[in-house]
């Protein structure tokens, strides 16, 4: 399988939108140098940084990684049907640990994103808190995960759940020594 070229894809989308690197950086609220470093593959963006930059282009992670993906409308999915949204963002050496987000069906079509999330020990969505115009909730299926929303922090265990306005700064971290699994929903879709 060929390695996905994040830098080339970002540049392609930026040029298609008629934006300079500086204009995209301003639109996304990131430093100009960050866009340049990613486009030249001198820097690999964190999930939160890439989401922020893609927000400046008004696209989500799915459109970024699978621009040609056409999904038929259907009501049922097997585990192999789930779309892996983030595995290409991480390497085995990723200091934050590995996070896998798998999406059920076509989130845009239904205006609802349902994810099967796996956080390996040490996995972290990043020190830069996530913020996006959605509402999200989830249930911890196994393990435990530390969730921060605005100033509140809680370690959720299997059976615990969360629900909040995603415009509030938030973060997910697995501070335990075993994987954590979460089933979540977000509307409107964010990734």
Keywords:
191 residues; 9 strands; 24% helix; 6-stranded antiparallel β-sheet; 434 Repressor (Amino-terminal Domain); 2 domains; single chain; RmlC-like_jellyroll
Spell out the blueprint of helices and strands.
Blueprint: H1 6-16, H2 21-28, H3 32-39, H4 47-56, H5 61-65, E1 83-84, E2 99-103, H6 107-110, E3 113-119, E4 135-142, E5 144-149, E6 152-157, E7 161-165, E8 170-173, E9 180-187
Antiparallel strand pairs: 1-2, 2-3, 3-9, 4-7, 4-9, 5-6, 5-8
Helix pairs in contact: 1-3, 2-3, 2-4
Pfam families: Cupin_2 (PF07883), HTH_3 (PF01381)
Keywords: DNA-binding
InterPro entries: Cro/C1-type_HTH (IPR001387), Cupin_2 (IPR013096), Lambda_DNA-bd_dom_sf (IPR010982), RmlC-like_jellyroll (IPR014710), RmlC_Cupin_sf (IPR011051), TransReg_Diox_bact_type (IPR050807)
Structure description:
Helix content is 24%, strand content 27%. It is of the alpha+beta class. It has 2 domains: 6-65, lambda repressor-like DNA-binding domains (434 Repressor (Amino-terminal Domain)), CATH 1.10.260; 79-187, Jelly Rolls, CATH 2.60.120. The strands form 2 sheets. A 6-stranded antiparallel beta sheet has the order 1-2-3-9-4-7. Strands 6-5-8 form a 3-stranded antiparallel beta sheet, with no helix packed on it. Helix 1 (6-16) crosses helix 3 (32-39), helix 2 (21-28) packs across helix 3 and helix 2 (21-28) crosses helix 4 (47-56). 27% of the residues are buried.
